[in-house]
Structures are given as structure tokens and as C-alpha cells.
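Trying the structure run again after the queue cleared.
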Amino acid sequence: MKKTVATVALVVAGLVCTTGAAFAHIAAPTWTTANSVSTGDQDNASVATKRNGYVAVVWEDDPDGNGYYNIPYRVVNTAGAVTASGNANSSATGQQINPRVAVDPDGAPAGAGVAFTVVWEDIQTGAQATVKAAGFTGPTTRAWEISASATTGQHHNPDVAVSASGDAVVVWDDDADGNGYYQIGLIRLARTNGAATLSRRSANASGGGQQTHASVAADFNGDFAVAWESDHTGTPGVWTRSFTSTGTARYVDTEVAGGGTAPSIGIDDQAQSVVGWTTQGSDPDVWVRGFGTDGTDTGRLSSQKLSSVSTGRQEQMAVAVSPYAEVAVAYTDDSDGNTYDQVILGTGISNNSW
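Done. C-alpha cells:
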């Protein structure tokens, strides 16, 4: 079937994250609207920071609403000019949804300017969903495309993070045996050819119940942290776990917030992380909480509601953390209750108490 492409927009905001004057346990962000067009519906914000502090925001934009998608991409330089565009997926058959992108923080091979990895959920006619990944060693150079997940069972909701080596850590909802119960799948893929540099495994240690909607972040050295939804204790909530560059867990599964949903995570170069999430209910809000390498929030951002206004509906929180513990967030906002979302961007937050 011929498909109409729905754009996934990428904007370099041209903002430098600076550490706020407040201590880490009190967030004092500067807010601005990230999207420039307010018509239609903007959803599923994702945010990333480069090492020089610039902030990038991505989101879904669906002007025609026909429900059929490819995964387009755009490369924007530091002057705000579009330098390349194309489709991350090489085949237009089937349905490609839920894209995520991560950029190599250390640049790209000589002369290439930028390297990045895109992941998405791929659904072919008559087949279960799998997770695909494509690695670009330059703005228009797709070096590889593979199935990050197993090809058996069903797999959904991928996320990706890239370290300075260019290797990509990919996580997703994994049900390789098709029994209807999900773990958090995890694999690391080489920049050059997509080969596994960390074998396919589960990021979560506690296997009961359902583990879904994972988010991953990696620092310059290759350390990474994962957050996800879990009900393995009998009560739904958001959980997290941190790993060294060799894939060794720093601590056991740690609860971030009871009743939280849709987590997003960022990590700095000291392997300290920040998790954002949305509260459940008819009038949801967005929250954040910081963690040190010991799995506690001592000296980090304490658990707190973080939105520019308190009325209406705030959800789909996305978090990014610079190498220096500077935090940027983005979320969708319908404070006027007209059922149309805007994307709100917040900067100037710190996960340090100094």
C-alpha cells in the first residue's frame, strides 16, 4: 500500500544549558514552546543534548492523520540549517512506528559531521512486530540496518542511546517467547556494522509481571542507565537501573515512583541519572527525580512535579542530561483543555547540589 509520510520533526533549539542558581533539590527551569506551528497535534517529544550544551527536540507531527508511517529524518547543523534528510528505514513496506534517534556525542568519522542511530518498531503484513535499528556514519550514509530484537515473538517501543564510541545501546519491550509477558530487551550495536558488542539480554533483574516502555541513556564513556514501567511488585510504577560500560549493573532494580508511567532518562559523565515520568489519572502531571551511582537521590534532584503550569494536562515527559549534570526536559501540554497539545521545553536545571 502506498503510504503518506508523517514527518518526525527535529529542531536544534540553539540553547546552551547552564546550571541554575538553585540547589539541585529545587528545579528552576526556563520555559519556551519548542514547536513553531500550533495547528494539528504534536506528540511524543524526545530531547537530546550535545557535549557543547545545545538542545535538540524531536516529536511526532501528524497533519493528515492517515495512520501510515515511514521514519523520516533531518540533520540540522549548529547554524540551524537542514544539511540532510531522508528515511531511516530502507524498505517502505509495512508499518514503521515509534521512532527514536540518538547522536554520537563525539561527532562522526572524519569529514562526516554527524553520526546517529535510529530505532523503530517494524510491523510487516502477517508478522509480529520487531525492533529495527539503522546506523548512519554520516548525514546521508546508512552504514547498516538490522533487527535489534529477536525475530521470534513480539517486540515494541524501542529506545536508543549512543556513546562517544558510536556504539548504540537499544532497549525495547521484549516477548521473544510470545507468552504475552514482557521483559526489557537490551543489546549494544557497533557503529561500523551493527554487530552486537553487548549480547542480547534483559535490562531488568526482576522478571515477574510486565516490564514495558523502557528509556535508555548513555554517557561519553559508554556507561548507561535504563528506566521502565513495571508491576512486578503488584503495584504499577517506574523503575530504573544503571550499568557500567561493560554492561555490569551498579545496583538492583530501583523504584523511581509508584504509579508513574512513560519514563524518560538521561545520564551525565559521572554516571548520575535523571528520570522523568507522567502521573496517572484524568489530570496528569510530569515529574522528575535524580539518582547517583549508588541508586539513591541523595544530593540529587528530589522527586518533584516539574511543569510550567499546574492546570490542565501535562504528560509525555522527555529528559536529557549534559555531561555536566545540566538537565533539559520537554513535555506535551494542554493547559487550556482544547485537546490540542503544545511541546514545552525547559532548561537551566541541575542534578548536582553544587
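The chain is about 0% helix and 50% strand. Worth checking whether this holds up in the mutant runs.
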